[in-house]
Amino acid sequence: MKNPYEGISLLDAMTFVSFCVGLANYDENVDQSSMNKTVKQAVDDIHYHLAEQDKKLSEILDKLGGDTK
Q1: Are the C-beta atoms of residues 48 and 42 closer than 8 Å to each other?
Q2: Quick one: pLDDT at residue 48?
Q3: pLDDT for the residue numbered 33
Q4: Which residues contact 61 (CB under 8 A, 6 or more apart)?
Q5: pLDDT for the residue 22
Q6: Could you write out the three-class secondary structure of the chain?
Q7: pLDDT digit of tens for each residue in the chain (69 aa)?
Q8: What's the sign of the alpha-carbon dihedral 17, 18, 22, 23?
């Protein structure tokens, strides 16, 4: 009779363990993805506000007769 475990290699075992670890960490990975999206949105908002401030400062310098370059 053939051994049922004969066809399982070390690579198969490592793949199974990796899959189990991935399942165990699924919630954490989803949370990291959400956090990355939140941080990206915050950085985009900061860039937008800095661009607006730059426009306002340029307008003030224009009115004062200063060099904007």
Answers
A1: no
A2: 94
A3: 78
A4: 67, 68
A5: 84
A6: CCCCCCCCCHHHHHHHHHHHHHHHCHHHHHHHHHHHHHHHHHHHHHHHHHHHHHHHHHHHHHHHCCCCC
A7: 556 556 677 888 888 898 888 888 877 776 777 888 888 999 999 999 999 999 999 999 999 986 655
A8: negative
Length of the chain measured in residues: 69
Cα(52)–Cα(9) distance, integer angstroms: 60
Separation between Cα atoms, residue 29 and residue 35, nearest integer Å:
10
* Residues in contact with 29: Cβ distance below 8 Å, sequence separation at least 6, in sequence order: 22
Q: What is the predicted pLDDT for the residue at 2?
A: 55
Crossing angle for the helix pair 26-64 and 10-24, to the nearest 10 degrees: 60
